[in-house]
């Protein structure tokens, strides 16, 4: 079971309130176990989810540990912070970083949380575990996305001085952004950092999964924003990259380039550094002169969303 804020909590799996008594929890577990068993029409996946939920909160000790686990207020602080890590470059120098990774998503999380709590309600700790887990999925997803963006930024920072990254890049409106733009010897990449809290896959030309609402089209929105940015800067992206937690994307997936849309790859986070360093099979690597020229264009043209 994922530790993502966007993931379904063990309480939700068992169908009880986080304030349920131990006895209510036990009764709910037994009931869900019977209902989800494959022999009575349930699925192996749901049966396994019920067992995992019980492992997380079934005993007083495990429940106390789960209930007390906090999500960080920020997991990225400049080029030295973060929860993810990358092997340092041989020179020990970090990538050039611009912008505030995760900043816009953090602010949206806080704004939505205050709106949900109600006008006049004082929130002493917006990162309190019980508050986060009781919030609607849309709010939890915003925090999960902020953490994903911060983790991606930390990985990028370890690539070395030959790389430059811009975070929270504006396109047309503050609500329409590219999470990361990365320039290096392998090319120019637009990156979407995501964490929907459960596995996703490519179906035809879109990302789908149990956690996505009907009508959500994250890949189409990402490609549109990247096209707008590329047109305004007069550049061409080598590829569009969607990066998600390893447990959400067990294997890399890709869509070939089509018309003016570059290739799209959906990869687990553990593969991001390799893709940014080595490029994508079959694609020509850029030259040093081209990287230097593009860096000036991007530095002069990129604008950032407001936090």
TrEMBL record:
Any one GO BP annotation for this protein: protein refolding
GO molecular function: unfolded protein binding
GO CC list: cytoplasm
Pfam families xref list: DnaJ (PF00226), NERD (PF08378)
InterPro entries: DnaJ_domain, J_dom_sf, NERD
Bias kind Basic residues: ranges: 95-104
Ranges of residues in domain J: 9-70
Sequence ranges assigned to domain NERD in this UniProt record: 144-252
Highest taxon above the source species: Bacteria
UniProt feature, compositional bias: Low complexity: 74-92
Region named Disordered: 1-23, 74-104
Alphabetized Gene3D superfamilies for the sequence: DnaJ domain
Protein name: Heat-shock protein
The species this protein was found in: Cryobacterium arcticum
Taxonomic classification: Bacteria, Bacillati, Actinomycetota, Actinomycetes, Micrococcales
